[in-house]
Amino acid sequence: MKDAFLEGKIAGIQLKNRIIRSATHEGLADEAGNPTAALIKKYEELAKGEVGAIITGYAAVMQNGKSPLLNMLMIDKNENIPHYKELTDRVHQYNTAIFLQVTHCGRQTFSRVTGMPTVAPSPLKDKLYNEDIPQEVTNFEIDEIVNNFVSGIVRAKKAGFDGVQLQLSHGYLLSSFLSPHMNKRHDQWGGSTENRFRIVKEIMERAREKVADYPILAKMNGHEKSKDGLKLEEAIVIAGNLEKASCDAIEVSCGIAEEGFVATRGGFPFAMIARHNHLMKKIPKMLHPLVKPILKRSFGSPEPRYLYNLGSAAEIRRHVKIPVIVVGGIRRLEDIQNVIQKEQCDFISMSRPFIIEPAIVRKFKENKQQQSRCIDCNYCQIGVEKTPVRCYYGKM
Ligand SMILES: Cc1cc2nc3c(=O)[nH]c(=O)nc-3n(C[C@H](O)[C@H](O)[C@H](O)COP(=O)(O)O)c2cc1C
Predict the structure, then answer these.
(1) What does 254-297 look like in DSSP terms, one character per residue?
(2) Given pLDDT bands bounded at 50, 70 and 90, which one contains residue 242?
(3) What is the pLDDT of residue 26?
(4) Where are the domains of the chain?
């Protein structure tokens, strides 16, 4: 019988169990985007806590793809490699697999942060990152972006990561190419599903020439909230395209940043937003009680709060042969065992539960705890914009 605590395999890599730490930006890189001692310590704690595998916070493959969040990881230079090697060596001491998530933030950043114009498949202003209208990327720039993803993957391999994960989710650049909501192009990079997928296909093809069968995973959206956003039917086709393009495993998430708390559901952390958001700072405090319900209506979390990607992930799994990982609102051991035992997905992943309890897997395994202590307040999600990640437990 299947069990969440039995070993599993992704592209031949042995994972201790079926519970993965999903990518979580920690805000603990140095100025060059290298992991700091504090970040290495955090990953060591996760490894000691018997997590099946760690997916790092997102690492940008080029400067104009850098996030405005504090201290993002970067994998844009060969000089980054020895710093990451230190991290992978430390995690491997605990016999734990670690994957580097590689990304380009696309229009979800600010030119004042990157020092360059923001770019996207189409010049559509983001509702949240709305200081600039992004420039529509040219063929030449797409070629450069593809090559930078490949270089990032080559560096990750040299740095000792067990594999990489392409971030195709949450509205970042590759996600915005895939999404009909953000990609309105009429050339070979837009229109049909095949055209919108082309940039990912190019990355996979060129990466395979350089790294052969090195594990390349992907995190994609199973659906988006926007009316013209990606829907499950098309996500299934994209998952099939990923498999054909030799992707090794798919993690299924949902939502884009401007849709609000869709990918990370739960409470609406208004107090934290009021403190950190650049737009909120322009609104006088006395107006906050009026603003809160309006914002919550537009950006608050939809239902359900738990296991909200399981339906789409299970459906995607029915259409592909590669392992499928489900993320999003997974909090109870009983639910984890159900997903694995009923073979709805091959692995489950979590983010916020590891912020409050890095050793949650060990606690589950030793039967000391049946569910995460995370209350889904989402303060961590906003707090990490300006300070390293931590659990606030619903209080400022
Ligand atoms: C503080 C924080 C940082 C995150 N950083 C990333 C990231 O770097 N890359 C990514 O794909 N998702 C990121 N996510 C989303 C999570 O990986 C995950 O998809 C989401 O939180 C839902 O899972 P959960 O309910 O277990 O938290 C982040 C979430 C949080 C709360």
Answers:
(1) --BGGG-TTSS-S---HHHHHHH-TTGGGS-GGGHHHHHHHHHH
(2) very high
(3) 98
(4) 8-264+302-383, 267-300
Catalytic (active site) residue 84: no
Name the CA dihedral angle for 341, 347, 351, 352, rounded to a multiple of 10 degrees.
0
Q: What is the pLDDT of residue 396?
A: 86
Point out the ligand 1 atom lying closest to the alpha carbon of residue 103: 9
Q: How far is the CA of 89 from the centre of ligand 1 (A)?
A: 24
Closest atom of ligand 1 to 378 CA is 31
Distance CA 178, CA 198 (A): 9
DSSP label of 148: H
Per-residue DSSP letter, 21? E
| Ligand 1 pocket, mutate which of 74, 170, 264, 385 (most atoms under 8 A from CB) | 264
* pTM value surpassing 0.90: yes
Answer whether CATH 3.20.20.80 is correct for domain 8-264+302-383.
Answer: no
List ligand 1's pocket residues with C-beta within 6 A: 22-25, 57-58, 101, 167, 169-170, 219, 253, 263-264, 327-330, 350-353, 380-381, 384, 389
Summarised one tens digit per residue, pLDDT across range 75-133 is 999 999 999 999 999 999 999 999 999 999 999 999 999 999 999 999 999 999 999 89
